[in-house]
Amino acid sequence: MSVEITPPYTEDQLAGDNVSKKDLVTFLQSSASIEFQTEHKLKGAVKNVAKTRTKEQLIADYKELFDTKNFKQPGEDEKEEERKKKATESLTEKTKKLDLKDEPQTPPKYTKYVLKKGNKINYPRPGDTVLCYYVGKMPDGTVFDTNSEMRAGQKKKKQQPLKFKVGTGQVIRGWDEGIQKMSLGETAELRIEAEWAYGRKGLEGKIPPNSALVFEVELVGIE
């Protein structure tokens, strides 16, 4: 069904000062089809369009609109908004991909040595909860922490395994990254540089600042 619009301004009104450029732009944007607006450069903020078009140009556009009857059809604004939304989403997605592509990759600040192979099937992913036994040592071999009493040289049974969620910052970054390279059942030695351990602050009473650390880790569960 075609839309019919009655001209709101007479020739005399258009020629006078009572009808401003903003009035004409507002009418044209509300009444002309998106195609017409694009062709005549009428899209955008009213004040900006009014700055870039003379009144004579806008009057000519006004007259042409009624000559061609290229009026806006019902639902046209909604379709245009949907098109803009999709275009914005597409641009955002492309920007994200470019940002990821350009983002410099940080070299790992740890080295992993396999002491006992795992099943090479099940690997922790970010968000998984893992269970581990570990012995934490200074580079000279001094043990500063462990939950594996047998490995600490005692005859008692092991304590409860350490349980944490991978990739969420619950442990030092060297663990967060290194554990994801281990498969279920694997025992590995993680030699972690200070930057991915406790950094410049260290851990009061246990680890001096800027200390590299060595962890023997056994991955016993993935939830």
Automatic annotation (TrEMBL):
SUPFAM superfamilies linked to this entry = FKBP-like
Q: Which domain of life is it from?
A: Eukaryota
Q: What class of enzyme is it?
A: isomerase
> Which parts of the sequence are annotated with region: Disordered?
69-105
What reaction does this enzyme carry out catalytically?
[protein]-peptidylproline (omega=180) = [protein]-peptidylproline (omega=0)
Q: State the UniProt keywords alphabetically.
A: Isomerase, Phosphoprotein, Rotamase
Comp. bias intervals (Basic and acidic residues)? 69-104
Which GO molecular function terms does the record list? peptidyl-prolyl cis-trans isomerase activity
Pfam families according to UniProt? BTHB, FKBP_C
Q: What is its EC number?
A: 5.2.1.8
Q: Which intervals hold domain PPIase FKBP-type?
A: 127-223
Extract the InterPro entries matched here: FKBP3, FKBP3_BTHB, PPIase_dom_sf, PPIase_FKBP_dom
- Record protein name field: peptidylprolyl isomerase
- State the organism named in the record: Ridgeia piscesae
What phylogenetic lineage does the species belong to?
A: Eukaryota, Metazoa, Spiralia, Lophotrochozoa, Annelida
